[in-house]
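Exercise 3.2. Students should predict the tertiary structure of the chain below and write it as structure tokens, then compare their answer with the key that follows.

Predict this chain's 3D structure.
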Amino acid sequence: MLKKIVTGSFYIWKSIYFIIGGCLCGIIPCFFSCGLDVFYYLDRPSVTGGGVIENPETPESRVFSFITAPNSSQQDIFQGTAVYYRLYNDFSRMNSDMSSISSVNTELYSDKGMTRLLSYGYQPMVAGNGNPIMIPVSEGTVTVSVRPFSEGGYQAAVSVNGTPRGEPMRTPLRRGFTFFPENEAYPEPVETDIDTQFSNTDAGGWWLAAYAVSVGQSPDMTPVYSQVEVLGYLYLDAGNTVTVSTGSL
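Answer key:
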């Protein structure tokens, strides 16, 4: 009888063991797989009152301008604001790429626009110390103007609240956006430059498209981007002889 009770108890405890074990196997993974994902987001910069520029005719208007976003609730990941650009020698190709970027840049706090922009080869514009994050978080909320090249008495400069911080430069060449043929100090873009979309061999000049974006980094070192803010585009000729086009996005 004792043996039967013990045997019976063994099967009872064995059954309980498998029940508890099964529950634990079902419950414990749930803590890992059913937990809430952590999402990081950043507010994007915004263009100033002048709006998106489409190759204006007057020199005083040929400047990209925006206001940085404070991202005060994301100070643990927010690093600053960057400007990304690409040079095109074909307006239609630039127009196509910019329209494509806009088509996926519609979701609030989504980095789809930045992902598409990077896939097209856009590069960070640098100034001053050469940091790809043009306006560090320490600057706070500021108004930024980017004049890519000198013309009409205006000097090429990145200005923060009206104070020049250096000349905007292409990456990785560390050269400005003033192009002169056969001048090594101010070389014209060539097909092999990583910041150049070369698709029209008959073009005489270059289109410069630009975007601003808030940039951060999550605790696991993953880049975090806001929606991109289109700043517009300008036309640059050799020697920066301005040729106005009637094309628009």
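Discussion points: The first helix runs from residue 2 to 33. The CA atoms of residues 1 and 182 lie 106 Å apart.
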